[in-house]
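Repro:
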Amino acid sequence: MEIWKRNLVILWIGSFITSASFSMVVPFLSLFLTQIGVHTHLALWSGALYSAAFLAGAISSPYWGSLADRYGRKPMIVRAGIVLFIVYLLTAFVTNPYELLGLRLMQGLLSGFIPGAIALVGTNTPEKRVGFALSMISASTSTGAIVGPLIGGIIARIWSNRIAFGSAGVLVLFATILVIIWVREDKFVPAAHRSSVIGAFREGLQNRPLLSALLLNMFTAFSIMTVEPIITLYIAQLNHSTSNASLIAGIVFSISGIAGVVFAPVWGRLADKIGFIKILLVGLFGGAIFTFMQLPFHNVWAFAGVRFVYGAFFCAVFPAINGLVVKATTPTFRGRAFGLNQTANQIGNMLGPTVGGFLADALSLHGVFWVTGALLTMAGAVSVLFNRSTLHGPTVTHREST
């Protein structure tokens, strides 16, 4: 097997496992809070736990990217995998929400397995196969997001959430060992000095099509993450019981992911024919409509059916934004562009759960769905404006940062 193909296979497996481990843990944090004695301001605590890792990741991602330019992407992937193993293992032993919050901060500051895998695949794959390779890594994370809640829900049902968290750590350790043994980074040329993070930000700000795509990524991530922390609580409310909430929440989370895996290739083929911006608009407005449609249903399985349709539309959004990032940049700047894209996404992921937690605490769980649907509608409207002004603009040529 050619080296780039072997790298792709191993990093597909690693990204799948890492994504699955994340979704084995995160959807159940709000229920786990009740098990360690948190019974007041539960939605607020859930939002804080979701946001903590994203805040830390938004701050640290450019730094790890600059180290990767100096020392290689593979060492950064291995470092991140070891950190995740330790964090998930320690999560299984926490006794209060402050310990849990500290571990979430550590996870955000020190991890970065999947971004590292994307960077390595993007720089060690033949140019004519880069699109295919990156789409395969994206598919692996989507598949992991489907399987993870099911695995986590089943383990939590049979044993406990603590065992599920520890199991997630063991899986990530296995993925890291695979990377250590089989991944080779042949095309890496160490930089004489670490690349300038400030310089990358400066060039990103000067590239209007790229800046527009980054802002859309941040705003869209913010919109959907307002509702994510409270879905498990909402499912427990619909089910009128918390006894099977972890298992049922795992199934419901997986349903929207299954829709993404089924329909993402369809949107991808359509994007090649009609363009990324049109697919982005369909995904955003479809996602908004079926966010509102989740409100009338008070049966958990009817709610799950609407979540499937929501996932079928919304899975078009982030691949379309990534396509716009590619169109807006030259290959020599693309690694830094996706680093900026990751930071923009993390900022949205950080702010969304905090706002969602405040809204749920101040209004109601239903109120968060109304806000999320409105925000996605606004994102679609903003996309129309960006399309007219910048997103259809020509690819920008960048000078090299010193």
